[in-house]
Amino acid sequence: MATGWSSVDPLRRRIFIGAVVIIVVLLGIVAFAGLGGGDEPDEPRASARAGQQQPAAQSPAAPGGGATPPPTGIEHDDRQSVGPVPSGPQSLPPRYTAPPVAPMSEADLTAASGRAMSFLEVFANGRWNDTAEKQIAAISPFVSKDSLDSVLARYQRVRPVMDRHEIITYQVTEARWALIGETQVVLTVAGNRTVASDGVAPKPGRMGFTLTLVKQANVWMVTAVRDPGEGDVGNGNR
């Protein structure tokens, strides 16, 4: 017996098959998009992660992280903070309470103080085995010829004692102008004096000098060496 299904069976079968084919194609497209197309976003993400990590490797560590920051273009000089402090008398310029009188200038005072400090280097320091000839030859260039005998007499009071093998070192710690004239200056200094000898511990002490200098032929010459307590600081040799 014929039925309604039988009369339209070929048509329905074709529609059914076509629908199945379309569904299969759509499923294939969806599957391809899920498998093949899903890998494409991973590459940009990986590149983004690499890009984020690269600046971190190139940038310097933060302060305190242990890494040295790159130079800023300003060179820092440590020599001023870690260099040794000058130990000689030349490191201490004299002071004065009033400006120099004319025609004395700052250049004149600088030259006079430098001459005085150089003189003290050879006058107040010495060794027991320095010969008299050697000391006279070292002191003479700083002293006026008319005053050499009196200055050498003063040196006999402070020179090292040969029998004790003394070594004397002197360092100026204070200096001031006692008198500033037109062609004459008087400089008073005080400093640390250490006397070392064989078998005896070094003996530190304080000692001062008052130096009178006169400008002769554009050169400052020592004309007198006295104790700071002595009243007369002039010399009469002008």
CATH architecture of the largest domain: Roll
Are there runs of 5+ residues with pLDDT below 50, and where?
Answer: 54-91, 232-238
Q: Classify the oligomer.
A: single chain
CA radius of gyration is: 49 Å
How many separate helices?
7
Q: Secondary-structure blueprint of this entry?
A:
Blueprint lengths: L3 H4 L1 H27 L6 H17 L20 H4 L23 H18 L2 E2 L4 H8 L8 H8 L11 E14 L3 E14 L2 E17 L2 E8 L12
Antiparallel strand pairs: 1-2, 2-3, 3-4, 4-5
Would you kindly provide a written description of the structure presented here, covering whatever features stand out?
The structure is a single chain. This protein is of the alpha+beta class and 238 residues long. It has two domains: 4-54; 89-226, Nuclear Transport Factor 2, Chain: A, CATH 3.10.450.230. It is built from seven helices and five strands, in the order αααααβααββββ. The protein has helices at 4-7, 9-35, 42-58, 79-82, 106-123, 132-139, 148-155; strands spanning 126-127, 167-180, 184-197, 200-216, 219-226. A five-stranded antiparallel β-sheet has the order 1-2-3-4-5.
Q: Summarize this, please?
A:
Keywords: Membrane, Transmembrane, Transmembrane helix. With 238 residues, this protein is of the alpha+beta class. The chain has helices at residues 4-7, 9-35, 42-58, 79-82, 106-123, 132-139, 148-155, and strands at residues 126-127, 167-180, 184-197, 200-216, 219-226.
